[in-house]
Amino acid sequence: MDKAIPTGSKICARRIREKEQEMHRERIKNMKSQIDTRVPMVAMLDHVKVNLKKEQMMEDRYSEIDRDNRILLKKMTDIMKQQSTFPPVEKKRTSGPESLNKDARKKELMRITRENQSILRRIQQAQPVYNHVEWEDEHRK
């Protein structure tokens, strides 16, 4: 059952409803905001803009880094001065005694290298079983 408000003329009722909707849209379009979205006045104050504690901590950190850098530079110059007064020391091989099976290992390595080269030569000389050109032709068909 239709529960619409009874009207004398549907055409007049539709025209009145359209006019009311248009007036409603116009009122919404011209409506002013009820919320203040401006920047608060407190944000404009200098003590809020400038964080003095943070700046002081950063300055302390930078001065500490500078001090550490100066200490390191002094140590490096001292080391360089000390090294220039002494003759360079030759490093001796201290890895232990010479291997007893060095020749056998070298011989085995040469044998493996020869076998690998012969296998590579056979692979390179082998003719392919599959013809990729034929495959491409069959695929185009």
| Number of DSSP strand runs | 0
Regions with pLDDT < 50 over 5+ consecutive residues?
Answer: none
- Rg from C-alpha positions? 46 Å
Largest sheet: none
Shape: flat
Q: In DSSP terms, counting alpha (H) and pi (I) runs of 4 or more, how many helices? A: 5
Q: Give the N-to-C terminal Cα separation.
A: 68 Å
Let me know the average pLDDT.
87
Q: Hey, roughly how much beta strand do the residues contain?
A: under 5%
Q: Decide which structural class fits the backbone.
A: mainly alpha
Helix content, binned percent? 55-70%
Please provide the ordered H/E string of secondary-structure elements. Answer: HHHHH
What does this structure look like?
This protein is an all-alpha fold. 65% of the residues lie in helices and 0% in strands. It has helices at residues 10-29, 46-49, 52-85, 102-125, 132-140. The longest helix has 34 residues, at 52-85.
Short characterization:
This protein is mainly alpha-helical and 141 residues long. The protein contains 5 helices and no strands.
Offer a few descriptive terms:
141 residues; mainly alpha; flat
What is this structure's SSE topology?
Blueprint: H1 10-29, H2 46-49, H3 52-85, H4 102-125, H5 132-140
